[in-house]
Amino acid sequence: MYTYNPSHHSGDGLRSSGIPEKQPYVRSTAMAPADRKVMEVEMKEKGRPAEPEEPEREQWGAKMDFMLSMLGYCVGLGNVWRFPYLCYKNGGGAFLIPYLIMLTFAGLPLFFMELALGQYASLGPVTIWRCVPLFKGIGIAMCIMSGLVCIYYNMIIAWSLYYLFASFTSMLPWRTCDNWWNTPNCVETSAVANATNKTDNYTRISSSEEYFHERVLKYSVDLGNNSTARGIEHTGTMSWELALVLLLAWIIVFACLCKGVKSSGKVVYFTATFPYIVLIILLIRGAILPGAREGIIFYIKPDFNRLRDSQVWYDAASQIFYSLGVAFGGILAMSSYNKFNNNCHRDAVLIALANCGTSVFAGFAIFSYIGYMAHELKMPVGKVVASGSGLAFIAYPEALTLMPISPLWSILFFFMLLTLGLDSQFVMLETIVTALSDEFPTLLRQHKTWVLLAICICLYLLGLTQCTQAGIFWLEMMNWYSAGFCLIVTALIMAIGISWVYGIKRFSADIKEMIGYEPNIYFKACWMVISPALMLFIFIFSLVQYSPVVYNGIAYPDWAVTLGLLMAFFSILMIPLVGIIVVAKNKGSFTERFKKAITPDEKWGPAIMSQEQKEWKSTEGIDNPATIYDPGTMENGTDQPPLYDPRSINRYPLYDPRSLQQDPIRNGGSINDTSYSSRL
């Protein structure tokens, strides 16, 4: 029995078998238009529609394009405005212990899982679930969460642009209290310490806080009769300034992504590296300021008693989880443009460690200025520290007003925030575009620029709600619900689906096929047991500790809380809903339908193939693939021998058309020839 190579099936190719020769089936080495026409006719004769040829899928221009894009995706605003605060809040240097443990047993393994899965199949977060069709809803949930985050994340980028433009002045506008937006309660930064010493019940409202709330956001709605109201139900008017900077933010994102990863891969050479340059400059300048030492000590001083608190471990796990961007689909999308043999194992370790190192490093730069501000205001460090938008747009800008040449430092800081946000925004938006173009390749892949433009326009229009006077409340609601516990649930189901349904042995073999060796026992144990257990802990803890969204002490009405919960459940409901649809569309009994839903699709496999394989892949659908050629098929009146499946080369050693390239029988040699393929 011989393996079959169609290129050798001609003339006297069957003389040794004793089978009467049939009309040979000849394939040219190139897919010419005429060949394509013949193939379409043959497929119609078989009763199957001709499949349109899919456009080529792009790849990264260079290895560094991918590394910097992934680093920029992971190192975002949370590394600068959330991690330092969590570190101070949860025991200083002692917080690094649960942080590193969660990185080791949850963050890194899941990051590697997504990276390897996307690279293996070169498919986006939705189509990748050909490996287990039952879980295709995971990819849709990822895209929904990425889309929701894109809406409010670009608004934060727009705020950074607003502050950046406002910094081009001789004196920062949030330095004084004699502006039209200030209230009688405003106290300039230089007078805060004296004002707080006058009375015990004094409520501090700094000029930078009023600038953010009353000038930028304008979140106090005038109700008439000298009364104002604040809340998501008080929409007020649209801010044309915010609408314009938001439009500019979307134009920047579109311009950088319009050519796909080819263009974004070059932009990240600047946007991913510039924040490090600014952080180094800020740290050097901050380290020589008075009070910087106290701020840094406050940041890293360990309090090991805090490790007994489960909240500390929850904060560590959630920070690692959100910082690495697991289950957003971005890792799958970016790795899908890699070369098939790229060492994704090494990349996962390097990127994860660089991300965590950046968080720790950023804390030193941030707290040196917090310590300086506390020193100048003669206040404890704990009373001036903040997190989130409060740190980026209130506390840190206030610290900048106390420095010489404050506009220069303000420009550097907000330009750094801009680049930090853009990198993450690039990947989340590319995730959606990649998912659509891979799910509908013949329809959308050639028109990715138009798809991107349509998505940008839609998300911009949805983001205009955050440009109203109630905008900050909409943003905080989306931040609270869009990627909270639903992200944990998605990641948990993903880990279970790959490790237990697709199979840890099969997944490990796929990784070996790419990089030459299987992942070690550490990764396998984490994928199967440890990481899912930690995610289950995070999910249960988040439910136990759940509280409705609140901003600046202002509670949300019931309808807003309900809307937020619907937003959260909308994404994860896609998982069971799509699973039910997949099972229902299959044929046979329920058991047969379900079994097919958890079995890899016939199209599943590596998408990166040789030119010969790509040409033969275009004939898929004419005949059923066969792993071994059986001459008996010729005796049954078959006009053409069965065609092979190019993906079977790596999976079925006996079925390799290359094994007959040295066939002596077909070329006049002897059966004992040493060049005869050992695979026969």
From TrEMBL:
It holds the Pfam family SNF. GO terms for cellular component: plasma membrane. It is found in: Membrane. Residues 659-680 have a biased composition (Polar residues). InterPro entries: Na/ntran_symport, SNS_sf. Residues 1-21, 627-680 are annotated as: Disordered. The chain crosses the membrane at residues 66-84, 96-117, 138-165, 242-261, 273-300, 320-337, 349-372, 408-429, 450-474, 480-504, 525-547, 559-584. Disulfide bonds join 177-186. Coiled coil: none annotated. SUPFAM superfamilies: SNF-like. It is a multi-pass membrane protein. Keywords: Disulfide bond, Glycoprotein, Membrane, Metal-binding, Sodium, Symport, Transmembrane, Transmembrane helix, Transport. One of its GO terms (molecular function) is amino acid:sodium symporter activity. One of its GO terms (biological process) is amino acid import across plasma membrane. Na(+) binds at residues 72, 75, 79, 323, 355, 420, 423-424. Belongs to the sodium:neurotransmitter symporter (SNF) (TC 2.A.22) family. This is Transporter. It comes from Branchiostoma lanceolatum (Common lancelet).
